[in-house]
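Hey, quick one: can you model this chain's 3D structure?
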Amino acid sequence: MPQEFSEDPTRFQSQISASEACDDLFADLYVSYDAESESIAGLRRRRRRAANTPDDPIKTVSLVEENGVLYWRDGIPAPGLPSRRRRASRGELAGPPGTIIITKEFPVLAPNKVVTAVAAIDRRLNQSLDVSLRSRLRLLRQTSDPIATFVLDPGEIKGPFGGSTLLFVHGTFSNATNMLNEFLATTPGEQFINGAVSGDHKYDQVLFFEHPTLAVSPVINALELGRCFAGSSGQIDVVAHSRGGLIVRWWLEAFGSSLAPNPQRPVRVVFAGSPLHGTSLAAPDKLQSALSLVSNIGSFAEATLKIAGAANPFLWVGGKLVEVIVSVTGALAKTPIVDALVALVPGLSGQSAVSNNYELNRLRLGPCAVEPDYYAVRSNFETPNPGWQFWKNFRVARLGDLAADAIFESENDLVVDTASMTDLGDPDFALKMSADICDFGTSDTVWHCNYFRQQKTVDYIAAKFS
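Sure thing. Here's the predicted structure for all 466 residues.
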């Protein structure tokens, strides 16, 4: 983790490139407008104001760096702040705190196109999905042509499955390939995958569940997973990351009656950073701040995990969701409409940490089908590195008006509240969560997106599934 990163004048170039690469994502979903008149008179009007107006078909938002932290702001902030995006074309990326990194100008989404826009984000995040956004299982296999490697079959596979099955379920903004690559990024992880596919105690099948994470609720994902596994028996082991943990819970606890497990061999699940009691990042009143945090995470993931381009969705997802917000509300501001907007993104609403999340509250009443053995991996991320202390700006411990941007009230791994990662709900069923937790405690290295790069995590999973 380079100490000098916060002073690197090129550190936001990837934010700019990722934003530009996604400019066409909503191309067929915007309202029609007079491009010629808007490009002249409209542009002049927008340059004279710092916020959007309801009657303007063209909206403007800016990603601004303030004291080393990225924030999405409505319109164009006060005059005098140099635009890093404009200067980038001249190879001049340096700028003082308060610099505008990106200015996005776009038409509003056409009526009845908001849900389609969210679905378009899902398909860009996971290009194996078709227009129906139907989830599917993919088989992992090992190939030696031309060198030994692991590949996910392009087609889908369905049960019933017998013998032993290892299932991986990815989280929000991710896909099966990204989750597999996290294991393959380190020697312990690669050895674990190799043993699962071709070792002396290999599984009969190793599967990855490919699913949309924004336009579809975890309940719907779980229903589809249940259909894929209907009638399956034998030993079923599951590794679930982030939101994938909610999918697995819904599948097993609500739809698991379609399984035919051996009572002596219960389903075993390891949750890694899963929002079992929701995440504050998806709370409706935190949406605008959450999208700012997502953009900060993009830069953090690029520098610490060396993840860039399409493999790092945090670099561009926040900006596209901002377009959705502004299309619905007319401005990027904290209003009751913005608070309710999270309901238009079922994948977020289903994991929202609020008391009136009726969907999540039903799950927490306890199982009505399968009762698995549950295990958990958790961390509380904090770092003394001044170049990465953006996370402090989203904690309630901050003072003054800056506290309005707070998301998390207590410990978290940058994406999920730590306490939520082991909170099953119903007191009786809570006993099904093993007391033997893989707990990284307060860590300056382990956060939401690198659990599977830790040997401790890999060893823990292997021990529980031995």
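One thing worth noting: The chain is about 30% helix and 15% strand.
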